[in-house]
Records
---
Amino acid sequence: MSYTSIKEWRDSEWNRHDQSSHALNAFHDEIMKKVFDTAFETCGAPPCRYSWFVMGSAGRFEQAIISDQDHGLIYETDSEEARQYFMKFGKELADGLNEVGYPYCDGNVMSSNSVWCKSKSKWNEQLTHWLKEESFESIRFLLIFYDARVLKGEKEYIAELKQTVHDYIKKNPHFLERLLENTQHVKKAVGFFHQFLTETHGSHAGSIDLKQSGFFPYVNNIRLLAMKESIDATSTLSRIEELTRLLNYQQELNWCAAEFEKLLHYRLQYHKKMTENYDDIHYLNIKELSKDERKDMKQILLNGQKLQDYTQSVIKGTIHR
Amino acid sequence: MEEIMFSLNSVWLVLGALLVILMQGGFILLEAGSTRMKNAGHIAGKTVFTFGLASIVFWAVGYGFIFGGNSNFFIGLSDFFYSGEQADGMPYSTAAFFLFQLAFAGISLTIAFGGFAERAKLSAYLVFAILFSVIVYPVVAHWIWGGGWLAEHGKQDFAGSTVVHLTGAMAAFAATILLKPRIGKFNKNGTSNNIFGHNQVYTALGVIVLWVGWFGFNGGSTFVVDDGFFGFVALNTNLAAGAGAVAALIISWMVLGKSDIPTILNGALAGLVAITASCAFVETWAAVLIGFVAGILVFYSVKFFDRLKVDDPIYALSVHGAAGVWGTLSTGLFATPELATVGKPGLFYGGGFSQLGVQAMGVSVSALYAFVVSFALLYAMKKVMKGLRVSEEEEIIGLDVSEHGNYGYPEAFITNEEKNRIAN
């Protein structure tokens, strides 16, 4: 199947899969797997076993209708031949995804970038380096990597690499505090008078940044708690589910899943109505919500702040010690 | 003793004039910092040029219109082309007084030009500098300070919240309406864009220069140094500026969720503008309150004009207009019986509504006069001069090049080719 025909198929099948975030993401997976198969055919048989994984919102199974690509490759054999093959393959994947409708990643988190396309042993070295370096960039990379979910190929490579992360955190609990700092800055969306803090100028005036102010507090803090508790699940909802099975979190996080589901729901409903422009997609115009929806949204945002405060106290060890 | 006081008063007035003239430097920094690089040289240059022009006009007719004898309802009619002659019985050098008043006229004009920023032709600056200094400013100044009808009503405007700031702001308002918004300021769907200034440090330095200059503006307006009253005036001035900055920070944090720097800077200036009318008539606590209210008012005023789709690049309408109105009214509320050397005490000091009424009438009539006449003059200029505004191309390349042929920051705009040529 050519990329063009995948795109056509995607466009025609679209509205059959946009009823829920779950259905939508299952459909995204299907499309991305088709892209993979086509790239695979184009590049010929690989020289060794491998694993293709997605990260970012795709890794968390939380993609919006449009989202950019975030993915990487792990291959078994550390040889020049394998390197050349998978770099070429990675580029083919990125180009294919772009053609089908997943824009290139601004941050270059793609299999076509040697940082994200490595042999198993090199990946392990890199991960250890990220853990030890604790620089702004390495921590950002590590957080991105932690949402990795295998789409094609060997499943256990990612699990093994994540085990390295878990082991490190067990031995160096202070590291979580360093991770916490990286995600502490949240763009406030509810102000002193409990009013929405919308953009005041520019083409998004009157809107809130749903990604930064709505999703980030949930996604980032739940990820951090999952890292603390060595949870392998990648979607925010399944991470919440696993966390609430632990006694410590049962009470504190029992409200969390419902709020996050609502957030996914609002985004989906809103996106169905809007033009397909990746720059606009993160903004939610408050005027388009009904009175009840506004109230609801405000509560979701405030609860995001609450989750942030809670996570901070958990990570800093002031509770659950 | 009288001779010593005469000399001291004159020194004080010239010192005041120096501080007020230095405020032109503050305005250059404020305006250039709040606008884009491509217009910076133009803004600096036109400020010096128009102040020079206004000085000559003030000498020729402005001073006579404001303070001259044989006056009619609008203006006085003597002392044109002022010779430096000493007026009988004046306890300070008349020439020093002249210089001090000239500096004020210059400030009002510079405020008016805030509404021209980044899009008016240089020739429009030239013509309006003359017209404003002949027809607009002297009438309001004569009414309130030159013994005109508002002075007879006991209108309190110690150093010119109305005369200098509001008059300038009203002319700026007329100009922004006739000039229309800058290219790219408003979107088709009605939202507005932030056209960021190129140097926030300049803007803040501008505010500090103005703040210090204001001690000449308000303190100097005592004219005399007897009993050191200017010290009290300076104290009130500083309190209001501080309160304005604090209030602006608080309101911006509460409403926008962030401590917005342009808002803080506007708050300090609004406090200064507001206390200008009342600095000699109110107690210190009232000065703090007046400044504080001005800091909040200026924040909402900026939002208000933005919503009206009035493009006011350096917030002249809000800082000098809205705060000027508030400052003028504030003395009708807070003037104390001991300090109200002009007019009556305010509402909160047993004066009833009478002084507040005088203030309200004075501010409305003055604002209306300044707006209507400025609008008419600018409208006529627009017809005769075939537009007040530079062409779209000129606006895009910047007024530095279009109006003056040189960039204020040449190295920022020079092409690589030229750079290499110079280097070799």
---
Amino acid sequence: MTYDSTEARGAILARLRHTLAGPRPIFRDRSEPSAPPTVPTAVTRADGDRRSLAKQFGAQLAEISGSYEILEDAAEAGERLVQLVKEWSAEMGAGAGEVPEVLSWAARALPGENLAGFLEESGISFFVPEDLHDESTRARAARAKVGLTGADAAFASTGSIVVASGRGRSRAASLLPLRHLVLLPMSRIYPTFEDWLHTLRQDQALGSYLRVSGQIVFITGPSKSADIELNITLGVHGPRAVHALIFDDAW
Amino acid sequence: MAVDVGAPYATRVRQALADDGMRTALDRATGHLKERRDRAMAEIDERRLRDEAGAVRRYAIERLPDLLEQLEANLIANGCHVHWARDAAEAVGVVLEIAREHEVGDVVKSKSMVTEEIGLNEALERSGIDVVETDLGEFIVQLAGESPSHILAPVIHKRVEDIAEIFRIRLNTPRTTSPAALCAAARRELRNEFLVADMGISGCNFAIAETGTICVITNEGNGRMVTSLPRVYVAIAGIEKVVRSAEDAVLLWQAATRNATGQNVSVYFSMSSGPRRRGDTDGPEEMHVILLDNGRSRILERGYADAALCIRCGACIDICPVYREIGGHAYGRTPYSGPIGAVLTPLLDYDIHAARDLPFASSLCGACRDVCPVKIDLPRLLLDLRSVVVERGASPVGERAAIRAYSTVMRRPAPYRALARLAGWLGPLAGLLPPLSTWKRDRGLPRFAARRFGALWRERVRDEEGAAG
């Protein structure tokens, strides 16, 4: 018998419809309400003003082995970023004056005005790949020790960030290097996942947000595994360190 | 000695109970998991989470065909290829066809029980394709030539010293019992595989109908690698994985991870809505989604829709006193173990008797029902399956005779008293006599008390009457 997806589809759907149209209830417990709330209740909690949310975000991230700093503005965040990359390069045994490449999102995809110009003059090489299916580009990206990205949103109650793939926003930058730096404006920190989803839904933007990118990822701290006798080990495949540079973008 | 997953149930259990290393590893791990879960659940409104997660799953299963059609339309609109598969053979055939079309030589996989269910690795390897499991636990299991013994922690049955030995033999890793060093060795080994693989394969935790989005939960980041680096990405989703909206998926993600490991959420939650867009730096050029039935529509047909609610958090497995003694391999050639495995395995099979022993691998203590984040009444399902097995005459003849005899004796005081007295005299020998001997073959029989309850009771009543008078 040759396989035909359309035929399989018809058979599966017909069988399900036949069962569901039957007279008997399909679940054991009939007292359960079957209509769930459209907006689920937030599982975790956080509240307060922007500063307080930034601190809660940081505290949650630190709880799961990430780290953070709160900076006054984008310029300060940029300076700190450059300083950190240089410090880490020294730690990782690069020679004097030798600074390895940062696998980065394009400047226009990063938050913070005038940051692009500043980073350009910093003496650090920010590698923004065009096409990671190109072999030499991929090899170069794989050598980077630090990745730099922005984030579309962040959540104070869990220390999570949201990154979306797209032009100038490689998935690789938050995945391949051992250290991941995140530039995070305070205005993007929501108390919980549910608050953010609710805002997008109300603006009728949730569907298009999810579909316009090939992939959206929620990242909550550094990569880890507990597969060996439940010992927590960091940096299994993704970054071992996730460091958030949170800056106040109020004006 | 390891458990032979192909042996009969009683043999598997005996082998498991004799494996001290495995039992030490299981004991260390499951105890921790329970503690972590309890702590994490105490931080939130557990009852509300379970109510809402349960309602969200029921909503989806009640509308399964409509949501599947909506999912399909949206996946296609997003640029995905959608394939439907009635059974394992069809699903495997689709994957092989995609692999052939793209001349795939190397495949990287993120942990997926549905691919274990359909025997995908073996089929790919038979076609000359190299398959590498990239979840650390699955990678170890693959190196050892075994199968996963837990849906979330595939190598929960091994001690760190066993794992170190596997790494030394297979990867030439210097002798070490440091989990960090073993992890680093695996990272080096697997990083290259990610970079050169032609195809990535994952399962699917939730499929969002409203947006055509496939969600994958991982902690290590291998799920992101598999869905992002190779040119071709194939997701295999059981048809029951569909959910209504992003809100529902995010709720279930939190319910699943908090219940599984005690984390607020997993490190990564990847939501793929199609191949890379024009101008994107990375991401697969093609994305395929296989919607797999393989017995799932039959589960609904047989009246076990509750089992389709499962979000694979594994909490029922960690808490099950039977699993904690015998481990996952004693459940046989199935990726699903513990209480949910004892329900799913016989139901997924055409022949319900093929796994007829599994519904009996439970003490019906109810712990699994109490931890289930979508409130599946697992003991009830196990009991129903037991009665199906017994009704169809699949239990041993001797056992049926014994139960008939038991029922006769228990309902009549005189024979009961006589037999109890006899058992007291015979002591441990009672178990050797048929029909009790059949019953006792795979069960322990409690020692009969030297003095019967009836006798003690009469004595006490007499004493109290004496004291009162």
